[in-house]
Each structure stands twice: as structure tokens, then as C-alpha cells.
Amino acid sequence: MPDATALDQATAMIEKAWGRPIEALESLAVRRPSDDPLLRSAMHIRSALVITDSAVAVHQDRLHALTRPGHVPAFYDLERITSSAADLRVAQAESRTSLQAISHVIEAREAAGTADRAPAVRLAQAAVARFGHAPRSLGQAPDQPAPSAAVGPSVAGLGPHR
User: Whose CA is closest to 133, among 147, 123, 117?
Assistant: First the structure.
């Protein structure tokens, strides 16, 4: 994406993370902000990026106009060129910061998704372990419930505490 603006990159990241077009996500973030606060955050950062992206374009156009080929800048243009270049660098830095912030929001969303699933996965593993590996006593009938297995880390390899 060499010609893609920071706004284009942000839009692509958000659409990929949430799996919907940006227009649908914008309406979700506005209508039901409490349903997905991370989406609301990403969309808020993206809306700030719209302004920054516009500033980048304006500063680039101004700088290109002042430094166009065949044009010899006047003495008073030097200050405007320097100022436009500095403003462009600031706007580009703000754009990069916004992109980083959006990627952090997306990482937080992914981490929250795996954190929500982790307890359920552990419970399912414990249930399978109890069901499949619980020892039966010799006199126990097959339809009687087996004693529950211990869930948690094994302490056999830890040895005595000193």
C-alpha cells in the first residue's frame, strides 16, 4: 500500500478486525456505543485521523506548489517552505500515532476475545479429563458416577519445599 493514506490503512485494519464495511461499523459505533466500546474507540481515533489525513494532504500540496520544478523560490518563500515542511512532518507523525493507537485497540480486542474464551476452554478440558480419565474402583458399576478428578497443576514434580 505505498499510495495508501493513513486513513485508508486505518479503514482496512478496522474492517478486517471487525469483518464488516466501515459504513456499517460507523453506524454501530454511533447507535450502540456500549455494545462494543473498543469499536467506539477505534472509530473515534479514525475520525481524528480524517482531520489529520486532510492536513497531510494540504501541507503536501502547499509544499509541492512552493517547490515545483522550474520554480525558483523567492526569499520570502523560504520561510513558508520550512514551515510547510515542519507542519507536514507533524501531521504525518500524528497519523502514524493514530494508526498505532488503532492497532493497539485491535490487539486489545483480540486479547479480550481470547481471555473470555480461556476459562471456558479450561473448564471443558477439565470436564473431559474428569470424564475420560477418572479411575473406577473395582467394585463400582459402570453406571455409577466416578469420583471427581483433581483439577489444577500436578504437584508430583515439585518436590519438597525448603
Answer: 147
